[in-house]
Design brief:
The protein has 246 residues and is α/β, with parallel strands linked by helices. Helix content is 29%, strand content 20%. The protein has a 5-stranded mixed β-sheet with strand order 2-1-5-3-4, with no helix packed on it. The chain has a 4-stranded parallel β-sheet with strand order 7-6-8-9, sandwiched between helices. Strands 10-11-12 form a 3-stranded antiparallel β-sheet. It is elongated and about 80 Å long.
């Protein structure tokens, strides 16, 4: 029986059983397998991997694991430090997202900050993976199995369970601070907002709002009307807290 030795670094240990974290793991095998398949057999999703070093040389996911290989697996966070000659994780072209059913509040926060974010509570895993792949969207999930689907290129396992901490985690992980553009998207449907004359929406707004506001925006998709009310101040406070935490 052949044996290969794996070392997983930094946050990749989040996916390993406690007794396998921060240690050199012996992997016995008899069948021919790619390093990608072996890495995922440990429970580590491929989109979380930045680079793979085998016997001091960097390889891609197609490398076939050999007897006595010493394999180091590095996460995204160490990309700048490791300086790998081959990276298995491409840089996203845009910071557009698609989220699984469990991340609805995170989807609202991302939209509030201006990010193109798809979310439906009836998305099936197969559809999430397809949308992520076909539209080059970053798939956000707390389902490791979903991230392991072969067609998923860009993806991230959200560690935090508190929605307020999740959005901070995402901003830090993808360095999103410079891309934040609040109040640009509809929280309800993700459509873009555009300013609209008060006269055009006068029949759709409460009497109290008519007297206190002259600036309105409408979603170009679902036609929801927005204005600066008490909720606007609350959202501003929420954004300020997020930006302060990052």
């Amino acid at each position: 029986m052949a044996v290969a030795y794996f070392s997983f670094y930094a946050e990749l240990n989040d996916f390993l059983p406690r007794h396998k974290r921060e240690v050199r793991i012996s992997h016995n095998f008899t069948l021919r397998a790619s390093v990608k398949d072996v890495i995922e057999s440990f429970g580590v999703p491929h989109p979380e991997v930045h680079s793979i070093e085998v016997n001091s040389k960097f390889v891609d996911f197609t490398y076939i694991v050999q007897d006595e290989d010493n394999i180091n697996v590095y996460p995204i966070s160490l990309g700048a430090t490791v300086k790998a000659s081959i990276s298995v994780q491409p840089q996203p072209e845009t910071y557009n997202f698609v989220l699984d059913i469990h991340l609805g509040k995170l989807a609202n926060s991302l939209r509030l900050l201006g990010f193109d974010t798809l979310y439906r509570n009836d998305y099936e895993d197969k559809e999430l993976a397809r949308v992520s792949s076909s539209e080059n969207r970053i798939l956000l999930t707390r389902d490791k199995g979903l991230l392991m689907r072969s067609i998923v290129v860009y993806g991230y396992y959200v560690r935090q369970t508190d929605p307020n901490k999740q959005i901070v985690e995402l901003i830090q992980r993808f360095n999103l601070l410079k891309h934040v553009a609040p109040f640009r998207r509809c929280i309800r449907c993700n459509g873009l907002l555009s300013q609209v004359n008060k006269e055009l929406v006068i029949s759709e707004i409460p009497e109290t709002v008519k007297k206190l506001n002259d600036e309105f925006h409408r979603c170009q998709n679902c036609h929801q009307v927005y204005w600066k009310g008490s909720h606007y101040d609350q959202l501003h406070s929420f954004i300020d807290r997020i930006l302060k935490d990052t």
